[in-house]
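User: Sorry, folds how?
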Amino acid sequence: MELIATSGYLICALAYLALAFILRSSWQGKIQGALIILTSLATIVWAAISAKSFYFGSFDKLFYLGEALRDGFWIAFLLVLISIRAEQAGGKAVSKVAGSTTLIIISVLLVTLFLPTGTDVYEPDSLFQFKIICLLLLCITGLIAIEQLFRNTPVDQRWAIKYFCLGVGGLFAYDFYLYSDTLLFNRIDINFLAARGYINALIVPLIVLSAARNPDWTLPVHVSRKFVFHTASLIGAGAYLIAMAAGGYYIKVFGGDWGAVAQAIFLFGAVVLLGTLMFSGNVRAKIKIFLAQNFFNYKYDYRQEWLRLIGSMSEEHSGQQIKNNAIKAIADIVESPAGILWFRDRNGNYRQAANWNMEAHEVEEPANSDFIKFMQVKEWVIDIQEFNDIPELYDNLELPDWLKQLNHCWLVVPLMHQTELWGFTVLASPRVEQNINWEDRELLLTAGRQIASYIALLQANDELYEAQQFEAFNRLSAYVVHDLKNIVAQLSLVAANAVKHKHNPEFVDDAITTISNATRKMTKLLEQLRKSRMEVVSKREQVNMRFLFQEVLQRRGADRPVPQLTCDAEEIIVIADKDRLLSVLEHLIQNAQEATDDNGYVRVNCAVHKGEAVIEIQDNGCGMSKDFLQNKLYKPFQTTKGNAGMGIGVYESREYVTSMGGTLAAQSEIGTGTTFILRMPVLEGNAEESDIVANQNNEHVGITG
């Protein structure tokens, strides 16, 4: 009996040692994981003490201390789980229960540690019953804790702990029976005591299964599915054969003359049935599904991840806030604290659409760059650290300069919509260093696809809204044309009668009144529709920017502050529609004058740099906010002038400059002023490059001379 009992406790120690090793290798720092590891170690100590007690036949003070130690750790672990469940449910009385239970555990430990005891369980001493009562009290406490844990767990979450409650509850129930029997008959049943090692080892698979279902316990099961399938099949077949052997033995013993024959027939039929089941595709499929659902714990709870993503993108916010939510939704998957979103514009290039906890970078990535083509074709998540270590994995891709200079850059996640790259997200390094695996990449790509489709829909809605606004504007224009026709009719009547009645004082007075009214009406219309629509049909020709500026300044010279022109080159020739380009420049200068006090300044600088005409229109007026500059400036019907403007001048200006192959950008700060920068290609051979110094921050250029 001693050898059987000792072997059982040693097997138990090895089983919990393996469990502790697996749990420790995947521990993520949470208290549940730490406590179950400590409980496994306490069980190992208890099994070692029990094995030593049976081997040497000495059940001294150490034996009872081991009993109390093991039970105490299991109860502590259960109390932590109950506390967490109660906090989630809003409970407040758990701390009192936990304090009382802790006091019981400490009392039992002190009793077992300091009270004297004999060394023979067959001849108990006078204090034997008192110690058994203490251990029995621990068993009752453990059973109550198991019941409270199961009761305080929501019904839809009990699947994750039911096997744990069954296993650990079974241990406490077994010990309760053992100690109750001991207390009743004043002696320990050595057979029940010897079986405890095997019984404790048997519940390890139940603990493993529950740990796999509870990510907070940190037990990732990364064993091959094929390996687990064959192992489970062998275990099931072995259990089946053992049961059939027992049935065959029963038939042989009680079958009389037919016993041996019936046994042979029964065993043959059992083997055939086993083979049929094992080769059945339906049975094999069910086994695989069962194993996948119960024994494989993926890194993510995909249901929760998906609900979180949909919730983030479905919140009722502005378009810009939704883009920020998109960055955060992707970043939260891999615990990234910041990110930037680039999205495709109408020209097919990629511009920054939003930034979250990360400095904005106003750069444009061309659609034909190797970086964009790589993500379009490969649809890979680019790990910057992996790229630096093993560039061959990325086909020796050359990263853009702006990405190399970006601080704390970690991942680049493509946002694919159908088969097209609609954008990408750059994520910052997490606070705790981690490596991403295939599961992280697949989830990031899937989330990226969902976000791309959502933002693409949002962008389509914005374009539809703009089209509707233009439609409304065209309807308004019809009323304006009607008013203009009335004014023209009045002026035409005056002009027609002027020759005949020009010497009549009353006619002159009426004509002056009519002209005054017409002027007032036209001024009001112009204030409402200032530069609202430009001619669609453009006649392009060679335009000397120096002469064009002289004409613009002549028109705007009557307003204050008077614009000041600096132009280094004698000739700066561009190909453009002169009238439309004149309207663009006049509009920008007028905006600068209207935003600046009379004692301020409006400076116009013009030069040539790298084959482009670079024009700066600079003022020290009221300036624009960062939000307006980034999200509203280039959108139609957005203005800072209130009812004085319709907010389509800058939009039309950029559209026309872009159609020329140029760019229009702006820098502004509230209280400091605004600078508009136009870049347009010059006619080759007609202008020499001016002396300019390019600013390192990309957009602004300073012009000397």
In short: The chain has a mean pLDDT of 76.
